Amino acid sequence: MAYTEPSETPVEIDTGTAYGMATPTFDPELIEVEAGTPTGEMLRRYWHPFAVAADATDVPKPVRILGEDLILFRDGQGRPGLVHPRCCHRGTTLYYGKVEDDGIRCCYHGWLFDVEGHCLDMPVESGRGQHRDRYRQPWYPVHEYHGMIFAYLGPPEHKPPFPTYDIFDDVPDGWHIVADDNNIGLEGDPTPCNWFQTHENVMDPFHVFVLHAGFSGNQFVAEMAGLPEVSWHFTDHGVKSHQDRVLDDGRFFHRVTEVLVPNVRIVASPFVEFNGPAASVAWTLPISRTETKIFTLMKRPLDAPLPRALYDGKRWGELTEAEHQRFPGDYEAQVGQGAITWHSEERLAGSDRGVSMFRTAFKRVLHAVAAGEPAPTPGHYAVKAGNYIGDRDEVIHLGE
Ligand code: FES
Ligand SMILES: [Fe+2]
Fold first, then answer.
1. CA–CA distance, 359 with 380 (Å, rounded to integer)
2. Of 173, 277, 307, 337, whose CB count within 10 A is highest?
């Protein structure tokens, strides 16, 4: 080999390699859900859906909400009950309890508890428990609303009135309200990542243009495919985005999407089934720090099947692993951020403004509650979100 003179030019050192990356961290204020943490306590000032009505039966069902394991049942009088799993006598689980007309009976020594934990019977104590009113199985209040079961896991003295939504005030003839616990892609199982990264995605309309309308083909409909003009706005209870497009037929499509602190998401159908206010409200439930589930109430025509996103013409559960790679959707993108996303490694850009604004709105409430102020709740909420399509001047101000 011919001899070459060593170069006089200094060797260029590579930069930006992954070598020596700092250990990533997350923002605990955004991800904690457990009782005793500031965010876990703030979340416990709100009602959360955790089951559909059909989940509460005479067979005790284990559920997890905000990191707490609990037992759901429905007594013979039709009342749902949500109790701590470990019996207040000697601690066996009520998972093996027997549901009766007026409560759930522990399998071990037969203590019977009603849906509010009152002990009604102690069959092997004298007088079947002369002092049974001294014992109470730890329980939580529940509320059924349009086929969805909600729980309040917070301090009893701060229990808010149950909030309702104006779009469910009137259900036209031939329509009904469906309670759905489908997840992003999954059918019923929890999504294995922190709830906040799933929830803030609602204020990220630009991912629709890339992930849902281009990268993986069009997963929704043609009306949703164009690059929108986007603006974000704080509201009394959170943040909303406006996404404006001119459709191929010349009509103006003013789409409004909103999130309410802490975990309500009001998103009009991405299949653009209805022109007008959104017909659904959904909640992003933190099951635990690393498990999430979305519960949705939808007002729909009786004969309209639930639309599901298609990935190269298939349902999410039908995809092979390689197809998941070629046609990713929300599940892949959000679980791909890790079980808990790395806030320290993010590089937020202009298109992330809605995400930043929602974090700000969330932390405002978090800090207020931590300082002893009440958690704001909407009472009866006037929904702003919708698909508003028509003449620009007529639709641009809808959802204000
Ligand atoms: S442990 Fe439940 S009745 Fe004894
Ligand atoms: Fe999405």
1. 24
2. 277
**Domain 47-142: assigned CATH number:** 2.102.10.10
- Compute the distance between CA of residue 268 and CA of residue 242 in angstroms, rounded to an integer: 12
Our CA angle for 246, 250, 251, nearest 5°, is: 70
Whether 108 lines ligand 1, by a CB cut-off of 6 Å, is: yes
For 2-25, what is each residue's pLDDT tens digit?
666 666 677 899 999 999 988 999
Nearest protein CA to atom 4 of ligand 1, as residue: 109
Q: Using a 6 Å cutoff on CB, does residue 123 contact ligand 1?
A: no
Counts of helices then strands in the chain (DSSP H, E): 8, 22
| Residue ranges of the chain that CATH labels 3.90.380 | 163-395
Is residue 167 within 8 A of residue 387, CB to CB? The reply is no
Question: Which residue carries 């009893």 as its tokens?
Answer: 156
**Token pair of 116 as six digits:** 């509010």
- What are the backbone angles phi and psi of residue 385, rounded to the nearest 5°? -60, 150
Task: Please tell me if the CB atom of residue 202 comes closer than 6 angstroms to any atom of ligand 1.
Answer: no
Cβ-contact 250, 223 below 8 angstroms: no
Neighbours of 166 (CB within 10 A): 11
Distance of CA 195 to the CA centre of its chain: 7
DSSP string for residues in 15-46:
-S-STTPPPP---HHHH--STTSHHHHHHTTS
Is residue 106 in contact with ligand 1, taking CB distance under 6 Å? Answer: yes
Among protein residues, the one with the nearest Cα to ligand 1's atom 3 is 109
pLDDT in tens, 377-388: 999 999 999 999
CB under 8 Å to 353, separation ≥6 — which residues? 232
Q: CATH says 163-395 is which class?
A: alpha beta
Residue 203 CB coordination number (10 Å): 24
Of residues 190 and 184, the one with the higher pLDDT is 190
Mutation probe of ligand 1 site: the residue of 106, 119, 137 with most atoms within 8 A of C-beta: 106
Residues of CATH 2.102.10.10 domain(s) within the chain? 47-142
Mean confidence (pLDDT) of the chain? 94
